[in-house]
Specification:
- This protein has 476 residues and is an all-alpha fold.
- The protein folds into two domains: 208 residues, Growth Hormone, Chain: A (Up-down Bundle); 217 residues, Growth Hormone, Chain: A (Up-down Bundle), CATH 1.20.1250.
- The protein is 71% helix and 1% strand.
- The protein has 22 helices and two strands.
- A two-stranded antiparallel ribbon has the order 1-2.
- Helix 9 packs antiparallel against helix 19.
- It is globular and about 60 Å long.
- InterPro entries: MFS (IPR011701), MFS_trans_sf (IPR036259).
Length: 476
């Protein structure tokens, strides 16, 4: 009886949904979550290796370390739209596993490099193959889960990324201590070997358990009835083929512009949490080095709480705008506290930890994007990739202007910029909420199907070469 109630609480009252979701939540969701967790550890491995001997061993000079990160970020950003678009053409299992294994191999061979320029080139290539990790996962999750289910799953996925970033430094500190000199290799080389080896079994797990897209009906662990239910329960799409209308549909849509802009404003607002700002402030107040390293991790703790809390509420409401307004108000309150230069340290801690809860848009706003683009396969794929690419186009230079290390510990200019960008999220939230309500009422967005039919039989399986198109019965 208790287990039955727990199953209903986790997966809903419908028996078909429970049977399907229980399998997805132990296959699809863990795969993406673990890959994103390892992504955080992998990126942290370069900074750990750099300060643990790689700099001297490979002769890094001047800004070469910055060039390494820039090369990675540029290619990562550029490849996100092509990556998500590729998922609409090829079976996702092939795309993800190929990308994961290539990314793992590139990380592994880094330990064999002898010059800084080689690591820079490898990072650029790795950026291309890891670009699919975040946006691709968001796209696939949005293909399997309903509006009332997606936010929580996206939150779980994002939380694993926070845990990876949070624990990456601790794990690598342990590796440095226990493996230094083992096998005649310096500690920094062991970091790349271990991180690479950790990724391979997860990629193989993906090969076995990634169910591709619902329309493929390819998951071996789903019964025929469950495959059919998965392919039909979200409803057929209005548009699901690459044709001459794709770019018109995308470029003339409000979703393609408003959601990425909103997400970009969020990213700019929280830059004080991502540029050692709290650590600089703590150093100026006389906190110990240990405290400077430990206390900022509380931001990730509040990020986890906020992400899960807001995602759960938005799923229960089956609406994202209400929690988005709460997040926007939190942007304003937290930034305003910092702008006011609190008289006590407690004020700063409250502001930093409060702002930590606003990492929730990584789950909530990607879920919102999936909600308002669910009617158009290509629009959702391209917008998913563009949201992160557009974000990167700004965050790559924003800290140089508003959070330069030379301003430490007084980042008042940055705090004011965060107050402004945080405030600007509210009108965008209002506009998106209005357009969502308007277009849903008009039947323009959402999977409403009265006048539509599938070009693929509901009982017909498809492969990566079979287009899946939903077309109107009459010309419109």
């Amino acid at each position: 009886m208790v287990l039955a109630k727990l199953a209903i609480w986790l997966w809903g009252p419908d028996a078909k949904d429970r049977a399907l979701l229980s399998k997805l939540d132990v296959t699809l969701l863990p795969y993406f979550s673990l890959i994103w967790f390892l992504f955080g550890i992998t990126r942290a491995s370069y900074s750990s290796a750099y300060i643990s001997g790689m700099k001297e061993a490979l002769g890094f000079e001047g800004k070469q370390y910055n060039y390494m990160n820039t090369a990675y970020l540029v290619v990562y950003a550029v490849c996100q739209i092509p990556g998500t678009s590729l998922l609409t053409i090829l079976r996702p299992k092939y795309v993800f596993v190929t990308a994961n294994l290539t990314w793992s191999v590139l990380t592994l061979i880094t330990y064999k490099m002898t010059h800084a320029w080689q690591v820079i080139v490898l990072n650029a290539i790795e950026g291309g193959f890891s670009a699919i990790a975040y946006v691709g996962a968001q796209f696939i999750l949005g293909s399997w889960y309903r509006k009332s289910e997606l936010g929580v799953r996206a939150a779980v996925f994002c939380v694993f990324g926070q845990l990876g970033t949070m624990s990456g430094g601790w794990m690598q500190a342990g590796l440095l201590e226990t493996l230094a000199g083992k096998g005649g290799l310096p500690a920094w080389k062991w970091i790349f070997i271990i991180v690479s080896v950790m990724t391979i079994p997860v990629a193989l797990f993906g090969w076995i358990f990634i169910p591709d897209l619902p329309a493929h009906r390819a998951a071996w662990y789903l019964s025929d009835e469950q495959k059919e239910h998965a392919a039909t329960r979200l409803g057929p799409l209005r548009q699901q083929s690459w044709d001459t209308t794709v770019f018109k549909r995308v470029l003339l849509s409000w979703q393609f512009y408003l959601l990425p802009t909103l997400f970009m404003l969020y990213s700019l607002c929280v830059q004080m949490l991502q540029n050692n700002v709290m650590a600089y402030w703590m150093a100026s107040r006389g906190y110990t080095t240990v405290q400077q390293n430990n206390y900022p991790t509380g931001i990730y703790a509040t990020a986890i709480v906020g992400t899960v809390f807001y995602a759960v509420i938005s799923d229960k409401l089956q609406s994202r705008w209400e929690v988005s307004v709460a997040i926007g108000i939190t942007f304003i309150i937290g930034s305003a506290i910092l702008v006011s230069s609190p008289a006590t340290d407690a004020g700063y801690f409250v502001a930093f930890y409060l702002l930590g809860t606003t990492f929730a848009p990584q789950a909530v706003w990607y879920s919102w994007m999936a909600d308002v683009t669910s009617h158009d396969f290509q629009l959702r794929a391209i917008t998913t990739g563009f949201m992160n690419s557009f974000d990167f186009a700004f965050v790559s230079w924003w800290p140089l202007i508003f959070y330069p290390a030379t301003d430490a510990p007084d980042f008042r200019k940055g705090y004011i910029a965060s107050l402004v960008t945080g405030t600007l999220t509210l009108p965008f939230i209002a506009i998106i909420a209005y357009l969502e309500k308007r277009d849903t009422a008009r039947g323009i967005i959402g999977r409403v199907h009265a006048d539509f039919e599938e070009s693929v039989s509901p009982h017909e399986s498809v492969d990566e070469n079979t287009p899946i198109n939903v077309r109107p019965k009459t010309n419109v």
